[in-house]
Design a protein that fits this description.
- By secondary structure, the protein is an all-beta fold.
- The protein is about 0% helix and about 35% strand.
- The strands form 5 sheets. The chain has a 6-stranded antiparallel beta barrel with strand order 2-3-7-6-5-8.
Length: about 280
C-alpha cells in the first residue's frame, strides 16, 4: 500500500512463571492516535469492482475525492476497512480498501455498494488551478512548538528518479503530471534533481497510466517559483507497481503467498529478587 499506518495495541506477558518482589516508581505521559469511532451517518462511496491481493477495488460514486486512509463502511455503518490507494480521473475516481481482519474481498460481488463518512471527502476544486490573485482557503500559515515522539524521518535517498513535471499551483501546493511508469506512494518525499526536498505528496489522482499528484511544499518553498514543465524527483523505492490496481487472473497466487496461523508456547525462568 502507500504506507498507511494502523495503530495496534498489545499487552502480552512474555515468559511468565517468574517469582519476585520489587518496588518501583515511574511516571510517563504520552498521546496515542485518536480513534474517532463510527460516524453518525454515511453516504455511498462507490461500487465494488474486483478484488486484488485481498483488497477491494472500488469505483467511486462520490462527487468529491475521498481522503486517503478514510474508513469505509457498510450501509449499516459497520467498518469494512480503510482506503489504501486512490486513482482515477478527476470525475471518475477509483480506490482500494485494505480490509479489516475477518473481511474477505471474495465475499463481495461486482456492484456491491460501500459507504463513507461525508466529512472524509475533499472538494474537486482542490486539484483545479486557482485564478490569479485568488486567496487560499487557509489564508496563511501558522507556526507552533511542541514536544513528543514523532515519525521516523528517513533522510534523503542516495538517488532519485524523475517523478513528473509541474503543471500549476493550487492553494500553495504543486500539481504535478507524473512521468513515472509506477504509482508514487502517498506522502512520499519529492526532491529536486540535486536531492533537496521540496515537500511531500499530498494527494494522487489521474488514470492508471496518466497519474497526477499534488505536493505539499516544505516551509520556504513557493509553488509560484515553478514554471510549467519543471521536473521533480522521487526515491525509486517510493513507487508502487501498476498491477496493484489490476484484477488478478482467477487462481493467481497473491504476492503474500497466503495467510498462516500459528501458536507458540514458552516457559519463563523462575527466580526471586528485589527490585530497586
Amino acid at each position: 500500500g502507500i504506507n498507511a499506518e494502523y495503530g495496534t495495541r498489545a499487552n502480552h506477558t512474555m515468559g511468565g512463571g517468574g517469582k519476585g518482589k520489587g518496588k518501583g516508581k515511574g511516571k510517563g505521559k504520552g498521546k496515542g492516535r485518536y480513534e474517532e469511532g463510527p460516524p453518525d451517518e454515511v453516504i455511498e462511496a462507490g461500487k465494488f469492482m474486483h478484488g486484488c491481493e485481498g483488497d477491494l477495488v472500488v469505483a467511486s460514486t462520490l462527487t468529491k475525492i475521498p481522503y486517503f486512509n478514510a474508513p469505509i463502511y457498510t450501509k449499516s455503518i459497520e467498518q469494512i476497512g480503510k482506503i489504501d490507494e486512490i486513482l482515477g480521473t478527476i470525475t471518475n475516481v477509483m480506490f482500494s480498501v485494505k480490509t479489516d481482519e475477518g473481511i474477505q474481498a471474495s465475499s463481495y460481488k461486482e456492484g456491491d455498494k460501500v459507504y463513507i463518512n461525508p466529512m472524509k471527502t475533499l472538494p474537486l476544486e482542490r486539484f483545479l488551478p486557482q485564478p490569479k490573485g485568488a486567496i487560499s482557503k487557509s489564508g496563511g500559515k501558522g507556526k507552533g512548538k511542541g514536544k513528543g515522539k514523532g515519525r521516523y524521518e528517513e533522510g534523503p535517498p542516495d538517488e532519485v528518479i524523475e517523478a513528473g513535471k509541474f503543471m500549476h499551483g493550487c492553494e500553495g501546493d504543486l500539481v504535478v503530471a507524473s512521468t513515472l511508469t509506477k504509482i508514487p506512494y502517498f506522502n512520499a518525499p519529492i526532491y529536486t534533481k540535486s536531492i533537496e526536498q521540496i515537500g511531500k505528496i499530498d494527494e494522487i489522482l489521474g488514470t492508471i497510466t496518466n497519474v497526477m499528484f499534488s505536493v505539499k511544499t516544505d516551509e520556504g518553498i513557493q509553488a509560484s517559483s515553478y514554471k510549467e514543465g519543471d521536473k521533480v524527483y522521487i526515491n525509486p523505492m517510493k513507487t508502487l507497481p501498476l498491477e496493484r490496481f489490476l484484477p488478478q487472473p482467477k487462481g493467481a497466487i497473491s504476492k503474500s503467498g497466503g495467510k498462516g496461523k500459528g501458536k507458540g508456547k514458552g516457559k519463563g525462568s523462575k527466580g526471586k529478587g528485589k527490585g530497586g
